[in-house]
């Protein structure tokens, strides 16, 4: 029974860590605009990466 409880707690801790990480699209886009790009969006399996983009081959 203790082993099951341990694994349940471990799974909950991992899930909460994953939920707290990631990328917020508004700050991501603002960051990209501040460094000269047109905007930005979150990408990746868990939306954890900020990806900057340009329109019309600006960069």
Automatic annotation (TrEMBL):
| One BP term from GO | defense response
Q: Where is the signal peptide?
A: 1-19
- Pfam families cross-referenced by the UniProt entry: Defensin_2
The answer to whether UniProt assigns keyword Signal to this entry is yes
Q: Record's Gene3D superfamilies?
A: Knottin, scorpion toxin-like
InterPro entries for this protein: Defensin_invertebrate/fungal (IPR001542), Scorpion_toxin-like_sf (IPR036574)
Every copy of the Invertebrate defensins family profile domain together lies at 24-53
Q: Which keywords fit this entry according to its UniProt record?
A: Disulfide bond, Signal
Q: Does the keyword Disulfide bond apply?
A: yes
Question: What is the designated name of this protein?
Answer: Invertebrate defensins family profile domain-containing protein
Q: Which organism is it from?
A: Phaedon cochleariae (Mustard beetle)
